[in-house]
Specification:
Elements: H1 9-14, E1 27-32, E2 35-40, H2 60-76, E3 84-95, E4 107-117, E5 120-129, E6 132-144
Antiparallel strand pairs: 1-2, 2-4, 3-6, 4-5, 5-6
Length: 151
């Protein structure tokens, strides 16, 4: 997995079902069987599609964590097409700030797999800025190798 951590942002996003500016992950500093640590400055982009008006609320961090989870799954898997996934539960959410766009430095996104059973997985996540956790919680995801569920 260490070779894949050297991919640039565009190549990392190719491993995700997210496309274009929606992809929030810019680099990976660590990836192993149990988790991944990603870095991003996407929260500072004025054209970030997760913004509502001129604001990027803290809950956009949940989407960033979800993308880190998807990237972890992709880097652990084969080189086939990205698997699709649906977050089925978000829990234990805690945050220390209201807006991510006001944080000047990079965000560190850390996700750690707690349990995995077939297509189901649960991860603990945190987003940190300047070594301070700004949002954390747990996400459960259902992944499939086919098309994303509709409805």
């Amino acid at each position: 997995m260490t070779a894949d951590t050297q991919l640039d942002a565009a190549r990392l996003c190719e491993r995700l079902p997210h496309t274009g500016d929606v992809c929030q992950i810019e680099s990976v500093s660590h990836c192993d069987e149990d988790g991944i640590v990603c870095l991003t400055r996407a929260h500072r982009r004025a054209d970030n599609p997760l913004r509502v008006g001129d604001r990027l609320g803290v809950l956009a961090g949940v989407e960033m964590a979800g993308q880190a989870m998807a990237l972890h799954q992709a880097l652990r898997g084969d080189d086939g097409p990205p698997r699709t996934g649906v977050v089925t539960r978000a829990g234990d959410l805690r945050w220390q700030v209201e807006r991510l766009d006001q944080l000047p430095g990079p965000l560190v996104i850390q996700v750690t797999k707690e349990v995995e059973a077939g297509e189901l997985a649960r991860y603990r996540f945190s987003l940190s800025h300047d070594e301070q956790v700004v949002v954390e919680g747990r996400l459960s995801v259902l992944t499939t190798s086919g098309e994303a569920p509709t409805g």
